[in-house]
Design a protein that fits this description.
Structural class: alpha+beta
Strand content: 25-35%
Distance between the termini: 71 Å
Radius of gyration: 23 Å
Length: about 250
């Protein structure tokens, strides 16, 4: 081999050795790395599993979910790693979607974004022996605070307990941007979190809670907030909304 070709061969080998390792080698265990689904968590890390977390939405299917009271539905779909509720004109058979399993004490984490003028919510401890989920399950409100058409009271704003409690000072991202929320339920003690900050806490059955209920739209619903163990329910209010990274830890 001439010196010229020897030099070229050595240069090639050096360049080849400088190439980055394969993506899976850089990332470590692939099962611990979430797929590229717009930032949606569709797999749990070993640490999360050891801590007791369970993934409720895999980003690909509605396995583990059902529609309230088995109603027909064409409004919910899986889209780009999110659980997506279609806008009003894109569906004719609407209903809430809920977990098959029921939960009593838990920490529920989820990300969401709402459409302009949109309204939705997440309910917990929902029973199916009433006409509507909200007749039993307290609701973490998800809404376009600024643009929703119609008058909103402070008791109907994002991260509040709908028509019961107003959240403290909060940092909510604008319409079309993702927010992270958490509901912590330990017996009658409930916490609402928004973007890593606790914005509300209340006690179901307390004198304050009873007084507020008597002044709310839940006054006529004796079972509201009284179910000890029930489903996690995502509301179809006829508006477009997206959820992702949905996980739960039993307490």
């Amino acid at each position: 081999m001439t010196k010229k070709y020897f030099s070229l061969a050595m240069t090639f080998l050096i360049l080849l050795g400088c190439q980055p390792k394969k993506q899976e080698e850089q990332a470590g265990n692939p099962s611990e790395v979430a797929p590229e689904t717009g930032g949606s968590i569709t797999q749990l890390t070993d640490e999360q599993k050891a801590d007791g977390w369970k993934l409720l939405f895999d980003g690909e299917s509605t396995e583990g979910w059902k529609f309230y009271k088995g109603l027909e539905n064409d409004s919910w779909e899986v889209s780009e790693g999110t659980l997506h509720c279609k806008p009003f004109d894109d569906a004719s058979k609407r209903s809430d979607i809920m977990t098959v399993e029921q939960y009593e004490n838990f920490e529920l984490a989820f990300d969401w974004k709402i459409s302009a003028q949109g309204n939705s919510g997440v309910m917990f401890r929902v029973a199916e022996d009433h006409d509507q989920p909200y007749q039993t399950g307290p609701e973490y409100q998800v809404i376009d605070d600024e643009g929703y058409p119609g008058d909103l009271t402070d008791l109907q704003l994002t991260a509040g307990s709908y028509d019961m409690y107003t959240p403290d000072e909060k940092n909510v991202n604008p319409v079309g941007e993702w927010n992270s929320s958490k509901i912590v339920a330990t017996g009658n003690l409930i916490e609402h979190w928004l973007n890593d900050k606790k914005v509300l806490s209340y006690e179901i059955g307390s004198e304050d809670w009873k007084s507020r209920k008597e002044k709310s739209k839940w006054k006529e619903f004796a079972s509201y907030g009284m179910v000890k163990k029930g489903h996690i329910d995502f509301q179809d209010h006829g508006n477009e909304v997206w959820f992702k990274s949905i996980m739960i830890k039993s307490l």
